[in-house]
Write a structure and sequence with these properties.
The chain is α/β, with parallel strands linked by helices. It has eleven helices and nine strands. The strands form two sheets. A seven-stranded mixed β-sheet has the order 5-4-3-6-7-9-8. Strands 1-2 form a two-stranded antiparallel sheet. The protein binds S-adenosylmethionine (SAM). S-adenosylmethionine binds next to α1 and α2. GO terms for molecular function: methyltransferase activity.
């Protein structure tokens, strides 16, 4: 593990923003429906805008984000929170929170386990958790204890997906399983491609219809998309946000803008690689073929959807390009399964195995049944049947390294990356 970053010593004053409490799931003000309008907006959503999408027995917060927001998923996120904690030996953050850390923002807070724990550990700080979906934060607080977190409902994806800019074939070509199957290398968004092409002297963006004026991330011609919070923050945190946005360069610019000088951003997530995949000529040769099919399929589906999954979005170049300094990364390998000998490692490995098994359907279902892999859109039955086989393969793999030395004990790679907005940056 690398060392932690230097201390934030942000001198920001005591800001208080006007936030309103978000409604609780099941309250009269939150509607349930089978369809949802686009919630792309820079305003804070009103409770009457909130609708759920019921699809294949799961509940989703909107029609675009690939993961559900139902009780089943909330239970998984509760376990996953414990895994993140154990991976960091009980710490909630790799930044150093001080008395100057007055305002903390958790973007895509979900059921809010991290936000609640931060508010309890640092009572001097005002903690705000934002999410576009209504989660059962009452259960979170019943389990984790009460907190003074301010919950807000807002759709942070003010950019959406630029569907017209790239065709699906081009998107798929960007995912080369042999080169980087976990998709960890930085990816330019279509907007970034355009910017680069223009700065290299080309007047037409790549893959664009000729007479179209390219300004697709601007939804209303005069209005620049962005987040308009009432005050700046000293720490902005995002966890497990892969596949949420198509335009990560814009996300990091907004985070930078909404931090006070000296404030920190922290992003954390994890991925799981498949062993020796680059050496295999075909997926059928892979020791766990159903798992490999699901893995490859869901990666391809996410590219087709325009919001690729993978941890590419945490690459340090995004932070550096946005202006962050003191960029620092912490990696922790967490075992999947109880194969390690060390007691602590066995404990976290068991929790992560439960988490992986339980969240598998949530991770795969919408992407494979809506977008499909390079060849076809999957049926719900195909996904569920393949998952059943995939689960037995996971159990087999999680038993540990094989005797022939063909595969190591299975681990997930957890990563935290932080960066600081310079003290002399204009507020
Ligand atoms: C995998 S969950 C992670 C939740 C939480 N950060 C955690 O670590 O437990 C991703 C979260 O992003 C939220 N999300 C997805 N799209 C969003 C959007 N456009 N605006 C705000 N939140 C969004 C989802 O509702 C979900 O709560």
């Amino acid at each position: 593990m690398e060392e932690g970053p230097p201390q934030p010593d942000d001198p920001a004053g005591d800001h208080t923003g006007a936030h309103h409490k978000r409604p609780r799931r099941g309250s009269e003000s939150s509607k349930s429906s089978t369809s949802v309008e686009s919630l792309r907006s820079t305003r804070t959503l009103q409770s009457e805008d909130l609708q759920f999408v019921h699809e294949n027995g799961r509940i989703y917060g909107n029609d675009s984000y690939f993961m559900p927001c139902d009780q089943q998923e909330q239970d998984c996120l509760a376990i996953q929170h414990q895994v993140f904690l154990l991976a960091l030996k009980g710490k909630l953050t790799t930044t150093k929170v001080t008395s100057a850390t007055k305002r903390i923002l958790d973007l895509g807070t979900g059921p809010g386990y991290w936000a609640v724990a931060m508010a309890q550990q640092y009572p001097h700080a005002e903690v705000v958790g934002i999410d576009m979906a209504v989660w059962d934060v009452e259960t979170t607080e019943a389990v984790a204890g009460n907190s003074n977190v301010t919950w807000e409902i807002d759709d942070l994806d003010v950019w959406g997906v630029d569907d017209e800019i790239e065709d699906i074939t081009l998107r798929l070509e960007r995912y080369d399983i042999a080169r980087d199957h976990a998709n960890r290398e930085p990816l330019d968004s279509p907007a970034k491609h355009r910017e680069k092409a223009n700065s290299e002297g080309s007047h037409t963006a790549p893959h664009t219809p000729s007479e179209h004026t390219y300004d697709l991330y601007v939804l209303e011609p005069e209005v620049q998309p962005g987040w308009h919070f009432s005050d700046t923050y000293n720490l902005i945190h995002l966890r497990a946000m892969k596949g949420v946005f198509a335009y990560w360069e814009g996300v990091y610019d907004e985070i930078y803008k909404n931090l006070a000088p000296g404030g920190w951003v922290e992003i954390c997530d994890y991925d799981m690689t498949l062993p020796n995949l680059e050496e295999l000529k075909s997926l059928d040769e892979f020791p766990f073929p159903s798992l490999a099919k699901l893995y490859l399929g869901v990666m391809q589906a996410s590219f087709k959807s325009g919001r690729p999954i993978g941890t590419y979005y945490m690459h340090r170049t995004y932070l550096e390009d946005a202006g962050f300094k003191d960029v620092h990364t912490t990696y922790v390998n967490v075992p999947i399964g109880q194969w390690p000998e060390d007691e602590e490692q066995r404990k976290v490995g068991k929790l992560l195995l439960v988490c992986v098994m339980e969240t598998l359907e949530a991770f795969l279902l919408r992407l494979l049944t809506t977008w499909g892999d390079a060849e076809k859109v999957w049926t719900v039955e195909e996904v569920r049947n393949t998952i059943e086989v995939g689960k037995s393969e996971i159990l087999e793999w999680s038993r540990g390294p094989d005797r022939q030395g063909k595969r190591d004990g299975w681990c997930a790679s957890f990563k935290w990356i932080v960066g600081r907005k310079p003290h002399d940056a204009p507020d």
